[in-house]
């Protein structure tokens, strides 16, 4: 073997190959050495360009979440006071004095239940930040905050406590830092993480920050998430594990604070977030038992809405790439800054009263207008039965209108604002068909073949009048030979046409 190696090592080709390898290694070494030298010189030059720390060039260490500090003197004093207060160095009499108004409202026992409760808020944006602010100001003292996002400039139109100095910092730490200056004794457990089903067990785990209260399960969870997937996973987990939870539906595209209410999730309205949440939870076996905050306000012409992405955006490639995270919306939702606050305070109000055992008596249905809606629907049903009987010549048994109480409420409150389209009077409202239908008043013959006696009508077929006006309209238009143009001023006819267009827009959107 050694002789074979010696024989081949002495060949001309082998010598050339060895020379090439050595030359290449030398060149590579020289290049790498030169690059290393250049890097060292560049780093040296960069360091030399940094000015020395002085009064003119001040420097501070990064914050605990890796950003430049934005601590004013007031922030520093607030943080120091909060550390002392959370360690017990804060007079309880001062706390009770600050909570005096809540104390006299809830009573000592109720306030103590709130102060000892462990509350989790998932989602710390416009809705969640106002909920947290209200809870801590009212006495909640153990709060876990969960949110993956940072404060942005666009957050400032609706965030409860964020300032310009907080832009770029995690929302959970922004809330903690600001609220510690108001309620320094509150202990915050900040989780700068994205909630989903895979981490639910960890993020909703018992309290672990206080040796005196370790292992305490959540007394309440507030769902302030605006992403449908994460929202459903949170609500489903809480329902499965019997954790009290209340959920905020969509505050985007809403403008009427008087329409915000609380009810069981089964009674929510048809805004897209409510509808999608109900449908997905029902598929998981959850159809009731979760209180939700929602708005009964519906979209319509002239109101803000979430528009579809333009063809230009689709042509750029994968639409999902426009989202901050996978499965998150890729569009900016129109939000009036006041409505998220209303939703947040409504959430907090429910939790405060529930934990303190204060009586809660919500009345869903247009603030007690259920009886009005039922009465109007019954009168309308009777009108169609009477008109159908006059047409067919005998009693029409089982005739039904394809309308619900919610439809009646929408027509009265949202479209006609509880006022007659003729005179604008709000008294004794009634719904009445605007014109005689071309096919008559009898039931649909196609449905009759299936054994159903339905009148084929749509919401746009009806207008709001007073009962007296409706009776005259029935006599002159529905049973008489006059047209609406002959009976009413042009302004009334135009107003009805505008309302009908609004209804068509709503039905198309729904």
TrEMBL record:
It is found in: Mitochondrion outer membrane. InterPro entries: ThiF/MoeB/HesA, ThiF_NAD_FAD-bd, Ubiquitin-activating_enz. Belongs to the HesA/MoeB/ThiF family. It comes from the Eukaryota. The chain crosses the membrane at residues 16-37. GO terms for cellular component: mitochondrial outer membrane. CDD domains: YgdL_like. The keyword Ribosomal protein does not apply. Its main location: mitochondrion. Keywords: ATP-binding, Ligase, Membrane, Mitochondrion, Mitochondrion outer membrane, Nucleotide-binding, Transmembrane, Transmembrane helix. It comes from Aspergillus taichungensis. The lineage of its organism: Eukaryota, Fungi, Dikarya, Ascomycota, Pezizomycotina. Catalyzes the ATP-dependent dehydration of threonylcarbamoyladenosine at position 37 (t(6)A37) to form cyclic t(6)A37 (ct(6)A37) in tRNAs that read codons beginning with adenine. This is THIF-type NAD/FAD binding fold domain-containing protein. The keyword Transmembrane applies. Pfam families: ThiF (PF00899). GO terms for biological process: cyclic threonylcarbamoyladenosine biosynthetic process. Residues 101-358 form the THIF-type NAD/FAD binding fold domain. One of its GO terms (molecular function) is tRNA threonylcarbamoyladenosine dehydratase.
């Amino acid at each position: 073997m050694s002789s074979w190696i010696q024989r081949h090592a002495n060949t001309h080709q082998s010598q050339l190959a060895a020379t090439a390898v050595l030359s290449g290694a030398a060149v590579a070494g020289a290049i790498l050495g030169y690059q290393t030298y250049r890097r060292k010189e560049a780093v040296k030059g960069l360091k030399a360009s940094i000015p020395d720390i002085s009064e003119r060039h001040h420097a501070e260490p990064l914050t605990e979440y890796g950003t430049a500090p934005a601590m004013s003197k007031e922030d520093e004093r607030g943080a120091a006071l909060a550390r002392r207060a959370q360690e017990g160095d804060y007079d309880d009499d001062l706390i009770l004095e600050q909570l005096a108004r809540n104390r006299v409202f809830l009573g000592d026992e109720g306030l103590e239940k709130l102060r000892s409760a462990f509350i989790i808020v998932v989602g710390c944006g416009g809705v969640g930040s106002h909920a947290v602010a209200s809870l801590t100001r009212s006495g909640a003292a153990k709060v876990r905050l969960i949110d993956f996002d940072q404060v942005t400039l666009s957050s400032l139109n609706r965030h409860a406590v964020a300032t310009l100095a907080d832009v770029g910092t995690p929302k959970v730490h922004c809330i903690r830092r600001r609220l510690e200056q108001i309620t320094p004794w509150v202990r915050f457990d900040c989780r700068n993480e994205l909630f989903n089903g895979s981490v639910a067990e960890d993020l909703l785990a018992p309290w672990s920050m206080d040796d005196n209260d370790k292992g305490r399960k959540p007394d309440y969870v507030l769902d302030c998430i605006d992403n449908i997937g994460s929202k459903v996973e949170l609500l489903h987990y809480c329902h499965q594990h019997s954790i009290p939870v209340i959920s905020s539906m969509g505050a985007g595209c809403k403008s009427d604070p008087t329409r915000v209410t609380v009810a069981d999730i089964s009674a929510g309205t048809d805004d897209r977030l409510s509808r999608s949440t109900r449908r997905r939870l029902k598929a998981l076996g959850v159809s009731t038992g979760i209180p939700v905050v929602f708005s009964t306000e519906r979209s319509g012409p002239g109101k803000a809405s979430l528009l579809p992405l333009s063809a230009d955006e689709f042509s750029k490639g994968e639409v999902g790439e426009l989202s901050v995270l996978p499965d998150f919306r890729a569009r900016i939702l129109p939000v009036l800054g006041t409505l998220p606050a209303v939703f947040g305070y409504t959430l907090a109000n429910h939790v405060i009263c529930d934990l303190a055992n204060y009586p809660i008596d919500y009345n869903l249905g247009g603030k007690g207008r259920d009886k009005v809606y039922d009465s109007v629907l019954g009168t309308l049903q009777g009108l169609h039965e009477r008109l159908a009987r006059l047409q067919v010549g005998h009693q029409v048994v089982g005739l039904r209108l394809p309308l619900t109480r919610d439809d009646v409420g929408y027509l009265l409150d949202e479209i006609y604002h509880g006022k007659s389209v003729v005179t604008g009077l709000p008294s004794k409202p009634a719904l009445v068909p605007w014109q005689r239908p071309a096919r008559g008043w009898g039931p649909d013959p196609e449905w009759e073949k299936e054994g159903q006696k339905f009148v084929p009508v749509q919401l746009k077929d009806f207008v709001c009048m007073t009962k007296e006006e409706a009776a005259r309209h029935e006599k002159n238009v529905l049973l008489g030979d006059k047209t609406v143009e002959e009976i009413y001023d042009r302004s009334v006819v135009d107003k009805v046409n505008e309302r009908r267009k609004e209804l068509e827009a709503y039905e198309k959107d729904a």
